[in-house]
Amino acid sequence: MSEKLRPCWLCSREDESSLIMNAHQQYAVKCAGCGAQTGWYDGPSEALDGWNSRPLEDALAEALETLRQWNRNEVEITI
């Protein structure tokens, strides 16, 4: 289970999200700031992992870091 919730994917607020449960004992994470919410999950750990899962954002961040490393190592700066 994820220890810390990532900022809201919609409004970027931190510490505004919380775990909620419905009458069917299903769990979701919801941002109190803007109302963004995950789908409903059978367990709290799945809801937290669903909130923290950002495959596209993570892939873009990884690609950006790769480009930064490439830039530091491969591009020669002349003055």
Describe this structure in words.
The chain is α+β, with helices and mostly antiparallel strands and 79 residues long. Strand 1 and strand 2 form a beta hairpin. The model has no long low-confidence stretch (mean pLDDT 88).
Q: Gap between N and C termini, in Å?
A: 50 Å
What Rg is obtained from the alpha carbons, in whole angstroms? 18 Å
Backbone structural class:
alpha+beta
Provide the residue-averaged pLDDT. Answer: 88
Helix content: 25-40%
Q: Proportion of β residues?
A: 5-15%
Low-confidence stretches: none
Question: In sequence order, what are the helices and strands, one letter per element?
Answer: EEHH
- Largest sheet, spatial ordering of strands: 1-2
Give the overall silhouette: elongated
- What's the tally of helices? 2
Write down how many β-strands occur, each being a DSSP E stretch of 2 or more residues: 2
- Main beta sheet, described? 2 strands, antiparallel
Write the layout of secondary structure elements.
Blueprint: E1 17-21, E2 27-31, H1 44-52, H2 55-74
Antiparallel strand pairs: 1-2
